[in-house]
Amino acid sequence: MKSSAEQGLDALEARVDELIRTVERLSQENRSLYARQKSLMAERADLIDKTDMARTRVESMINRLKSMEVNL
């Protein structure tokens, strides 16, 4: 039969093992979230560029239409 001190050490060891697993899981989650954030930021930058290009093209079309109206 284990002594009270041995039982306490076993419980402490189990808790430390559980904490180690939790830290490893959270570290992996953190890495995954950072990767997702990086991907989303790149996607956002790409969408901003596409929006700017579309705006420029629309403004160009509007200006061409206005110049056509003046020539009529």
Fill in the keyword field for this structure.
72 residues, mainly alpha, 94% helix, 1 helix
Question: How are the secondary structure elements laid out?
Answer:
Layout: H1 4-71
Residues in β-strands, percent = under 5%
The overall strand count is: 0
Mean pLDDT across residues: 95
Number of helices: 1
The structural class is mainly alpha
Query: What low-confidence regions span 5 or more consecutive residues with pLDDT below 50?
Result: none
Largest sheet: none
| H and E string | H
* Radius of gyration, taken over Cα atoms and rounded to an integer in Å: 31 Å
Shape type = rod-shaped
Distance between the termini: 104 Å
* Portion in helices: over 70%
Give a structural overview.
The chain is mainly α. The protein has one helix at residues 4-71. The termini are far apart.
Brief overview, please?
The chain is mainly alpha-helical and 72 residues long. The chain contains one helix and no strands. The model has no long low-confidence stretch (mean pLDDT 95).
